[in-house]
Design goal:
Elements: H1 6-13, E1 16-21, H2 33-39, E2 43-49, E3 55-59, E4 68-69, E5 72-73, H3 74-91, E6 96-101, E7 105-111, H4 116-125, H5 134-141, E8 150-155, H6 163-170, E9 175-181, H7 193-201, E10 205-209, E11 228-231, E12 237-241
Helix pairs in contact: 3-4, 5-6
Length: 252
C-alpha cells in the first residue's frame, strides 16, 4: 500500500509551479530566489495545476548513477514512481508516454488509449539499468516532443550534464519537472543540494525524492515470465511482480 501522504506528495512533485508575492509568516524555504532577485521583492512558489498537454516521462536507468540495493534502490523506486505518474496522467485524461534506456531503448510515444498504461507497465517490468546516459535521451527527444508538452525527469544523476539538453527542450516551449533522487537516503555519499540550486537558477522545477517518500509495496511471489501491475485507489500504479527470467537480467 502507499504510505501516508504519498498521493499528496506525488501531486506536488508533478505540479507546474508559478510564483506569487510572499506573505509574512510563510516558510522561507518556499521563496523563489531567482524571481525575488529579478523583481526586488520576495516571491514564493505556488503549485496550482498538473502539467498540461502530453506527458513525457523520462526514467533515467543509467547504471553508474543508481544507488542502493534491492527494493531500497533508486532503480526500484524509479520504476514505482514512473508507473505511478503514468497511471495518474492517464486517469486525468493526458496523453502519456515514457522514455527509458536499460539494456534496450524504451520509447513509448504519448497516447491516451486504454492499453497505454499496460504497455508502460510491461516495459517497466522488464527494464534493467544500462549504459546510455539521460543526456542522449533528451537530445533525441528534441525531434519528437511537441510544443507545449510536459517533460518529467526521474533521475539519481546529480552531475547534471543532462541539464543543457533539458534547457534546449525548454526553448521549444516544453515544461520540465525534475524528480531528483536523494542518494544519501539510499546509502549513497552525495547530496542533491547543488543540483537543485543549479536547476533553480534556470527556473526548472525540481523536487527531491527520498527513499522514505515511496513505501515499497508488499512483495509478491515472482513467477518466471509473468508480470503484474496494480493500480491503487488514489490513481497511482505500482509494479508488484516482475519476470524472474526474461533474458534481460544476467544471472548473479
Amino acid at each position: 500500500m502507499e504510505g501516508p501522504g504519498v498521493a499528496a506528495a506525488l501531486e506536488a512533485t508533478v505540479s507546474v509551479d508559478t510564483v506569487r508575492e510572499y506573505n509574512p509568516g510563510e516558510p522561507l524555504k518556499t521563496i523563489h530566489w531567482p524571481t525575488t532577485a529579478r523583481r526586488g521583492s520576495l516571491y514564493v512558489r505556488q503549485f496550482e495545476h498538473m502539467p498540461s498537454s502530453d506527458w513525457w516521462i523520462f526514467l533515467d536507468m543509467e547504471s553508474r548513477h543508481q544507488v542502493g540495493g534491492g527494493s531500497d534502490s533508486t532503480e526500484e523506486h524509479g520504476v514505482i514512481l514512473a508507473a505511478s505518474l503514468a497511471a495518474r496522467g492517464i486517469k486525468e485524461g493526458h496523453r502519456v508516454g515514457m522514455v527509458a534506456c536499460g539494456q534496450e531503448l524504451t520509447w513509448i510515444p504519448p497516447r491516451r488509449s486504454s492499453s497505454q498504461l499496460g504497455e508502460i507497465l510491461r516495459a517497466l517490468a522488464a527494464i534493467h539499468p544500462g549504459d546510455r546516459p539521460l543526456a542522449d535521451l533528451l537530445r533525441q527527444a528534441q525531434r519528437s516532443t511537441q510544443r507545449g508538452a510536459s517533460v518529467i525527469l526521474i533521475t539519481p544523476n546529480l552531475a547534471g550534464e543532462w541539464a543543457a539538453n533539458l534547457i534546449q527542450l525548454m526553448r521549444s516551449d516544453i515544461t520540465p519537472t525534475v524528480l531528483l533522487f536523494d542518494p544519501l537516503t539510499f546509502g549513497g555519499p552525495n547530496s542533491p543540494t547543488a543540483t537543485v540550486e543549479m536547476l533553480t537558477e534556470y527556473d526548472i522545477a525540481s523536487h527531491i525524492i527520498s527513499r522514505q517518500l515511496l513505501d515499497r509495496p508488499r512483495a509478491h511471489p515472482r513467477r518466471p515470465g509473468k508480470w503484474e501491475g496494480r493500480v491503487l485507489g488514489a490513481g497511482s500504479a505500482v509494479v508488484v511482480r516482475r519476470p524472474a527470467d526474461t533474458g534481460w537480467r544476467d544471472p548473479a
